[in-house]
Specification:
Elements (H helix, E strand, L loop, with lengths): L2 H25 L4 H31 L1 H27 L18 H22 L9 H24 L4 H25 L5 H30 L8 H16 L4
Helix pairs in contact: 1-4, 1-5, 1-6, 2-3, 2-5, 2-7, 2-8, 3-4, 3-7, 4-5, 4-6, 4-7, 5-8
């Protein structure tokens, strides 16, 4: 298998966790504290992945200036795009409760939710594809981090979609499309940046890290906390730390 096809395959594998999470939430009614716990765990996984596998690598290969610039640029780009989709009804796209808007409440909110999910998934998929450049194989820590964090996103968002009255065709159409888009994004990341300079690679890696960090702070952690029952909210930070430790262990396992 050529490297770019392998990149697309692994991007699709990582994106498939969204579909798996959606299927679980569609078949079973998941208690809100469980959904919140899985979301908190996924947030911890992503924080560790971006800190030890994206930012650290970006700084070591490209230097501090491109890394800092990329972090800020990625965060700003995500925030601007997120504000745009939020205004169209996607603000609570990761929520598992009735706070997601239905199409009747705000026309176009379904499209906004889909675009918001795509916005969350593309930066990390591009980085995953770039990890295959050089023929060393997929970056296992990055792949594991993305897969583990995608599962709660599909789970939580689908729970909210069910409550807001969206049908199976819409729900699975969104997540299958996003999974395919993740595969394409990983393929593109591998092909486009194959001959890029270390500084450019560092900039792209850190931009993805900045976008992911902004997403975690803006949606995942607040919504994990809010979706917890009051008596479980004190556990949110602990579960996030467990996710961080899990991804850190994978990153330093020699994989």
């Amino acid at each position: 298998m050529t490297v770019w096809l392998e990149a697309g395959f692994w991007g699709l594998v990582a994106g498939s966790a969204l579909v798996i999470g959606a299927a679980i939430a569609w078949i079973w009614t998941i208690p809100k504290p469980v959904t919140a716990a899985v979301m908190a765990f996924g947030a911890g996984v992503l924080i560790s992945t971006l800190a030890f596998d994206l930012v650290e690598e970006a700084e070591s290969t490209g230097g501090m200036a491109p890394t800092a610039l990329g972090l800020l640029g990625g965060a700003v780009a995500y925030i601007v795009a997120n504000i745009a989709v939020n205004r169209r009804g996607a603000r609570h796209r990761k929520r598992s409760d009735e706070m997601q808007m239905s199409e009747d409440e705000q026309p176009g909110s379904g499209t906004a939710i889909a675009i918001g999910a795509l916005l969350d998934g593309v930066p990390e998929s591009i980085v995953l594809g770039m990890s295959l450049i050089g023929g060393a194989g997929v970056g296992v820590p990055v792949l594991a981090g993305i897969f583990i964090s995608n599962l709660p996103e599909g789970l939580s968002s689908t729970s909210g979609m069910k409550i807001s009255g969206r049908g199976a065709r819409y729900v699975f159409g969104v997540w299958v499309s996003i999974a395919l888009a993740c595969g394409v994004a990983a393929l593109v990341g591998c092909v486009v940046f194959e001959d890029a300079s270390p500084q450019t690679v560092a900039l792209i890696n850190s931009m993805a890290a900045g976008a992911i960090l902004a997403m975690i702070a803006d949606t995942m952690i607040p919504e994990a906390y809010q979706d917890s029952a009051h008596k479980y909210q004190l556990w949110t930070g602990f579960i996030t730390t467990l996710g961080f430790i899990t991804a850190f262990a994978i990153s330093h396992s020699g994989g």
